[in-house]
Automatic annotation (TrEMBL):
<dbReference type="InterPro" id="IPR036249">
    <property type="entry name" value="Thioredoxin-like_sf"/>
</dbReference>
<keyword id="KW-0201">Cytochrome c-type biogenesis</keyword>
<feature type="domain" description="Thioredoxin">
    <location>
        <begin position="228"/>
        <end position="382"/>
    </location>
</feature>
<dbReference type="InterPro" id="IPR013766">
    <property type="entry name" value="Thioredoxin_domain"/>
</dbReference>
<keyword id="KW-1015">Disulfide bond</keyword>
<dbReference type="GO" id="GO:0017004">
    <property type="term" value="P:cytochrome complex assembly"/>
</dbReference>
<dbReference type="Pfam" id="PF08534">
    <property type="entry name" value="Redoxin"/>
</dbReference>
<dbReference type="InterPro" id="IPR013740">
    <property type="entry name" value="Redoxin"/>
</dbReference>
<protein>
    <submittedName>
        <fullName>Cytochrome c biogenesis protein tlpA</fullName>
    </submittedName>
</protein>
<dbReference type="InterPro" id="IPR050553">
    <property type="entry name" value="Thioredoxin_ResA/DsbE_sf"/>
</dbReference>
<dbReference type="GO" id="GO:0016491">
    <property type="term" value="F:oxidoreductase activity"/>
</dbReference>
<keyword id="KW-0676">Redox-active center</keyword>
<dbReference type="GO" id="GO:0030313">
    <property type="term" value="C:cell envelope"/>
</dbReference>
């Protein structure tokens, strides 16, 4: 028998033709057809192989939670298409109603279902989409009073904006899940942080440890947290040069003029950008080591962070981002992205000695050796 997670993969039944559907009707039909087939396959497997009672429960929970997981999996990307339509508000409400009806069929907070990989996928997916859904209401007093009631009312918006990712997910976990599911989702959040932004990782881990002192998950993340504590104590140093901390620069040419006659690797990043954190953590030190004592400048332009200066400098310390730093105005961000032809973060481009520039060819995730070759060619350019 195919593995249960593979057999209900959305790629087995969600066709390209569904990607511009404004209503979820055909998706629901496709899910039902897939589930009918999977149900029959599961019954045959149980009859023929007589699995243990525990494994049979795994299969049954997989079947129970698969429709909701398949819907969330598809909707997670499809919502961007819906948002592009003029009637997006009406259509999104219809999709959410269908999603919520599927989520209501079986308890979302179900410790017995933790044996099911599909259930784990579902609650992880739910946590991500719930966070993104709350972003849309983040400036409302209801949202702030519900999720940040421990802060004085005049400090709640700042508390949210300081970390709208990890701390908000922790709040969702504690508000919507209890017991073993709460513990599991704490571990899930720590796992996500190990691959991406580690903002507030230590304080979240400390609360997790206090709440679940004997948790088997603790040992999995203690090495990450130990390293994070060390990184948090790093100071700013003289090799971290702040060229603009107020959004003064408005055009890419303003930046180029600061580096006349130099070769510069520019990293367009943001404190809010998970992939940016990943790329900095994986590649920044290695690139600096390779080009040590060579005439290559490193420039980090932080985008859409003018209201997040404290976290900006905190992350520069954390990742030991030695080089020049600019806190970009919206005008600079838009001008640089338009002129380099990029539309996503992180973006890397190279400024040459003559003031011309070119987009990195290294792609995402970065092919570091390809970028090194491109930089060496740029440095030899006269």
């Amino acid at each position: 028998m195919r593995t249960i997670s593979r057999s209900i993969s959305p790629t087995t039944f969600i066709f390209e033709e569904l990607r511009e559907d404004s209503l979820p009707d055909r998706l629901l039909v496709a899910i039902q057809k897939n589930m009918d087939s999977l149900s029959q396959e599961t019954k045959r497997y149980i009859t023929q192989n007589k699995p243990t009672a525990t494994f049979e429960k795994v299969l049954q929970y997989n079947l129970a939670y698969a429709p909701a997981e398949l819907f969330l999996n598809f909707y997670g990307n499809h919502k961007f298409y819906l948002e592009s339509r003029d009637d997006s508000e009406k259509l999104t409400a219809i999709w959410k109603q269908k999603r919520d009806s599927l989520l209501a069929v079986y308890p979302l907070n179900n410790a017995e279902a933790l044996i099911s990989p599909i259930y784990k996928m579902l609650i992880g997916n739910y946590l991500l989409q719930r966070k993104e859904e709350l972003w849309a209401t983040a400036q409302s007093s209801d949202f702030l009073s519900t999720y940040y009631s421990e802060f004085p009312s005049n400090q709640r918006a700042q508390a949210y904006s300081g970390d709208p990712e990890n701390l908000l997910q922790e709040k969702i976990i504690n508000k919507e899940f209890t017991g073993q599911i709460n513990e599991y989702l704490y571990a899930y959040l720590l796992q996500m942080m190990s691959r991406s932004k580690k903002t507030n990782a230590t304080v979240i881990f400390d609360r997790f440890k206090a709440k679940y002192p004997t948790s088997l998950y603790r040992s999995l993340y203690e090495p990450m947290i130990t390293e994070a504590r060390i990184n948090e104590k790093r100071p700013l140093n003289e090799k971290m040069v702040f060229l603009d901390s107020s959004g003064r620069l408005k055009k890419l040419d303003d930046v180029i003029n600061l580096f006349k006659g130099r070769t510069v690797l520019v990293d367009m990043w943001g404190t809010w950008c998970g992939p940016c954190h990943q790329e900095i953590e994986k590649n920044a030190h290695a690139l600096k080591t390779h080009f040590k004592n060579k005439d290559l400048q490193f420039l980090y332009i932080s985008n859409f962070d003018l209201k997040n200066q404290l976290n900006w400098k905190k992350l520069i310390r954390y990742y030991s981002m030695e080089g020049s730093h600019v806190l970009a105005s919206r005008e600079l961000s838009e001008d640089a992205m338009n002129k380099t032809g990029s539309d996503s973060f992180p973006t890397y481009f190279i400024i040459k000695k003559d003031g011309t520039y070119e987009l990195s060819k290294a792609g995402y995730p970065m092919e570091r050796e390809l970028l090194i070759k491109q930089l060496e060619e740029a440095m030899s350019y006269h």
